[in-house]
Specification:
The chain has 279 residues and is of the alpha/beta class. The protein is 39% helix and 19% strand. Helix 1 packs across helix 2, helix 1 packs parallel to helix 4 and helix 2 crosses helix 4. It starts with a helix and ends with a strand.
């Protein structure tokens, strides 16, 4: 591997080509992380020489990436919405498609003060995105896992977002008894037998945040059944789910909600189903 920034990037990209959908971006992110530089410095100084220790660190990270470990875990952060979030193996890597859920909340609640709950917050991606867009809202972020909640709280502190409350517990049981304007969640919704779970990247992410019983429907059903009593009249429940689960989730919402609809994600796949508590 060459010892200049440009040659190291080209070599890393070549190694990653058969293992990543974005080998050039992965190579750049690893090098930026190792050198503590941004995109401008990366482009401006291709002739910069790497030390032996830096080259050794790059090789170690490349081996982990080649084994399938998500790039976000290797560099410790990922962009979501307009935020840079710190992530590690305690939490799922936030996906761009989950931004559909953020957009849905912002579009359906007006700009007046509101109280919103994000169940199973993980890294805090959804809650923090909403808190950043609506500083006059109160956002509740819950998770049953203490490590995940620590990660979300650390992100809130680092981003300087103060309009959040954090609570540990299972789904709605972690919330106070009050009328929320919206309850949102990206719960586990993958069946334990789904072959996609064998993808190398998913083997590194917490299975408890991916897999649900009853063909992936158990947590979706639990939230759908209980949420209405936590919502004010006219309040919304919004759930992310698998692309084939839209009809199931709409059926779960039908007994207690109206104006039920399913929204597509960035790839135009059915991804978020929502309903409104009747007035």
């Amino acid at each position: 591997m060459g010892d200049t920034l440009d040659s190291a990037r080209r070599c890393a990209r070549q190694q990653l080509a058969a293992h990543s959908d974005s080998p050039d971006l992965d190579a750049r992110r690893l090098l930026e992380h190792i050198l503590g530089i941004g995109a401008v410095d990366f482009i401006a100084h291709p002739e910069r020489r790497l030390s032996a220790a830096e080259l050794e660190q790059l090789d170690a990270l490349l081996q982990r990436r080649l084994a399938g470990e998500p790039i976000a875990y290797l560099v410790g952060e990922i962009g979501f919405w307009t935020l840079d979030l710190q992530v590690d193996a305690r939490v799922l890597v936030p996906r761009p498609d989950t931004e559909t859920l953020v957009e849905a909340v912002l579009e359906r609640l007006d700009d007046q003060p509101a109280t919103v709950a994000d169940l199973g917050t993980g890294s805090g991606a959804i809650a923090l995105a909403l808190a950043s867009e609506r500083p006059h809202w109160q956002i509740w972020a819950t998770d049953i896992d203490a490590g995940a909640l620590d990660c979300a709280q650390a992100n809130a502190v680092r981003l300087g977002l103060t309009n959040l409350c954090f609570a540990q517990g299972s789904w709605l049981a972690a919330l106070p008894c009050q009328n929320f304007d919206a309850i949102v969640s990206n719960p586990p919704y993958i069946d334990s037998g789904d072959p996609h779970l064998q993808a190398p990247a998913l083997t590194y992410e917490p299975q408890r945040a991916l897999v649900a019983a009853e063909q992936g429907q158990a947590d979706l059903a639990s939230i759908a059944v209980a949420a209405c009593s936590y919502l004010r009249p006219g309040g919304y429940l919004m759930l992310e789910h698998g692309f084939e689960q839209g009809p199931t989730v709409r059926t779960l919402l039908e007994p207690a909600f109206e104006a039920i609809e399913t929204l597509p994600d960035l790839g135009r796949q059915p991804r978020v189903t929502l309903g409104r508590r009747p007035l």
